[in-house]
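Narrative of accomplishments. A recurring question from our advisory board has been how the design workflow behaves on a single, concrete structure rather than in aggregate. To address it, we present the structure tokens for one chain from the evaluation set, followed by the sequence designed for it. No filtering or post-editing was applied between the two.
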């Protein structure tokens, strides 16, 4: 019984991982992803410095960057 449950779990995991996904083909057009990229936020460095100088940490920086 101790060996049976891990075997069933391994068989189930193999079946799930081997199942194809809808976008698994290599023919996915790249234009669906062309809206992602990078951009410049003016004044970000000074805002980050102000948060750090006020005693903020990386969580405070992350919250402030989400609010921009």
């Amino acid at each position: 019984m101790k060996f049976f449950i891990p075997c069933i779990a391994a068989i189930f995991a193999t079946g799930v991982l081997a199942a194809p996904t809808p976008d698994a083909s290599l023919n996915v057009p790249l234009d669906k992803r062309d809206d992602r990229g990078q951009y410049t936020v003016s004044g970000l460095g000074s805002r980050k410095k102000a948060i750090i100088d006020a005693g903020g940490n990386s969580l405070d920086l992350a919250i402030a960057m989400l609010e921009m």
